[in-house]
Every structure is written in C-alpha cells, then in structure tokens.
C-alpha cells in the first residue's frame, strides 16, 4: 500500500516536488542528483528487462516477449497503450520515466505562463502540479515484495 507520509522515494532516492519542477524549468536532470539517479535506475531496470528477454531459451520465446513489449511501448498515438495499462495499474508500479518527463516539458512549453500578459496562468500551474503529484504518489508506494539486495547492488554498479 502507499504511504501517506508525504515522503517520496524513487528506487531508494528521495524525490520532492522541487526536483520535478526544476526539471520542467531547466529541461535537464543535470544539477538534480535525485532525479538523475532515478533516471539511471529506470534505465538499469530497462536493461535488466532486456537481459531477461534475451535469456529466453528459444528465438520464438524471445520474439513473443519482444512482440508484447513492442505493442505495449509503441510511441504510436503518444504511447496510448502504455498509458492505458499504466492507468489501470494500482499501487506499486514502475513508470517509464522518460514518457512522464516528456509530458512535463510538453505541458510547460504548450501553455503560456501568463494570460493577457498580466495574469498568472493558474490552469498551467494546476496541470503541472497534478502531473508531478501523480509521479510523487507512485514513488511513495511500497513494492509488494522484498528487495533482493544482490540485485540492487548489481543494478547500482
């Protein structure tokens, strides 16, 4: 179940609202160590999944898994399949962080900061807050399993 303490951890690193906000403003994880490590960990998980697929015994088994993932992770219609499955998942889940970070940048660029050159665009701020808050919520969910310390060490090396 998810923690309600307000603490957010992404693969063991504390992430806060300002980490995501900094990314939106700068468009980079540089000088943002918590988010940079989270992206590195997501990339490590992705590489681990690739390794698990390639370790299947037959080419047919490997093709079956790559076919399923290809459909799920297709960028067609702005990742519609991934977004549908992701939104159906409840509790602990590992996001494709790149998709969500791209959404933050797109939202920041698409909507103006000000309306009528003098009024702060509260709708834009609300949308950014909502997207960032969703990311923070998933980082606070505890996995339904115990961490394998050897695997964690391998992924961090």
Give a written overview of the molecule.
Helix 1 (about 15-25) packs across helix 5 (about 95-110) and helix 5 (about 95-110) packs antiparallel against helix 6. The strands form 2 sheets. Strands 1-2 form a two-stranded antiparallel sheet. A two-stranded antiparallel sheet has the order 3-4. Residues about 1-10 have low confidence and may be disordered. It is built from 7 helices and 4 strands, in the order ββαααααββαα. With about 160 residues, the protein is mostly helical. It starts with 8 loop residues before the first strand and ends with a helix.
Summarize the structure.
The chain has 157 residues and is mostly helical.
Lay out the secondary structure.
Layout: E1 9-10, E2 13-14, H1 17-26, H2 33-54, H3 59-72, H4 76-88, H5 97-110, E3 114-115, E4 119-120, H6 122-139, H7 149-156
Antiparallel strand pairs: 1-2, 3-4
Determine the N-to-C terminus distance.
29 Å
Structural class: mainly alpha
Helicity range = 55-70%
Rounded to the nearest angstrom, the radius of gyration is 18 Å
Q: In percent, how much strand structure appears in the residues?
A: 5-15%
Number of beta-strand segments: 4
Strand order of the largest sheet: 1-2
What's the helix-strand series? EEHHHHHEEHH
């Amino acid at each position: 179940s998810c923690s309600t303490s307000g603490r957010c951890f992404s693969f063991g690193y504390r992430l806060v609202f300002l980490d995501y906000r900094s990314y939106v403003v700068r468009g980079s994880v540089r000088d943002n160590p918590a988010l940079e490590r989270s992206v590195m960990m997501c990339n490590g998980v992705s590489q681990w999944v690739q390794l698990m697929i390639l370790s299947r015994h037959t080419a047919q088994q490997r093709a079956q898994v790559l076919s399923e993932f290809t459909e799920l992770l297709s960028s067609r219609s702005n990742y519609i399949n991934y977004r549908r499955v992701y939104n159906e998942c409840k509790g602990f889940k590992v996001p494709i962080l790149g998709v969500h970070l791209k959404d933050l940048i797109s939202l920041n660029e698409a909507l103006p900061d000000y309306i009528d050159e003098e009024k702060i665009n509260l709708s834009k701020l609300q949308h950014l807050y909502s997207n960032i808050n969703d990311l923070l919520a998933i980082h606070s969910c505890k996995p339904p399993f115990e961490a394998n310390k050897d695997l964690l060490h391998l992924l961090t090396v």
